[in-house]
Amino acid sequence: MNAARALAIRRVIGRCGSVESEFIHHDDRWPEELGVLDFWDSIDYLGFVLDLERELKLRKPVGNWEFQTWYYSGFVVSELVQRLLRLIEATPTES
Predict the structure, then answer these.
(1) Could you tell me which residues come within 8 angstroms of residue 94 by beta carbon, excluding any fewer than 6 positions away?
(2) What domains are there in the chain, each with its CATH number?
(3) From first to last of its 95 residues, what are the pLDDT tens digits of the chain?
């Protein structure tokens, strides 16, 4: 299940950045590599969170201040995936 969710997170990053998910790598960093993509401003953060919730079929939102802090302070894709997986692990999904 975590592998499927990790791939879903990668798809969301790619979709939001208008690139195929295959171009998003586990060691890509924000803002260094990912900063060239189209979606890294404040309104795009909301779209990113909503797309994550839709892609992962979450019933409860993942958008919270802790996640927003990671988003604005910089991250590596693999770190973001691990943090999000921990954050949503207890979140129920739709059947």
Answers:
(1) 57, 58, 59
(2) 2-88 (1.10.1200.10)
(3) 689 999 999 999 999 889 999 999 999 998 889 888 877 677 777 888 889 889 988 877 765 556 667 667 788 999 988 988 887 776 665 55
